[in-house]
Amino acid sequence: MVTFITALSILLAVAIIILVMLQQGKGSDMGAAFGGGSSNSVFGATGPAGFLGKLTYILVAVWMILVLSLAFILKSQNTEEIFNIAPEELLIEEVEEDEIPTS
């Protein structure tokens, strides 16, 4: 399950990056290079801004839910204590001067 959610999160992240780069910016940056500036596009008369913007918001919401659920699953699976020795139980050994290596 964790592997599936991780793979899906990576695919959604790549899709979000591609969608953001395809959108037409204020200066018609990357979106115009791929035909984003034309009004007779596949996305309708309003252009790709409305459709791609809504699709980006939806994908970001799904990605956010997946990442938060992945964090919750991994947190609940990892219940073992890493440091099970209390700090006051740790003993510091004193080393005598003749045991210290010198160069």
Automatic annotation (TrEMBL):
Superkingdom of the organism of origin? Bacteria
Concerning its family, UniProt says: Belongs to the SecG family.
Q: Which residues cross the membrane?
A: 51-74
What functional role does this protein have? Involved in protein export. Participates in an early event of protein translocation.
What is the organism of origin for this protein?
SAR86 cluster bacterium
Gene name per UniProt:
secG
Protein name stated in the entry: Protein-export membrane protein SecG
Which biological process terms from the Gene Ontology are attached to this UniProt entry? intracellular protein transmembrane transport; protein secretion; protein transport by the Sec complex
Localization (cell): Cell membrane
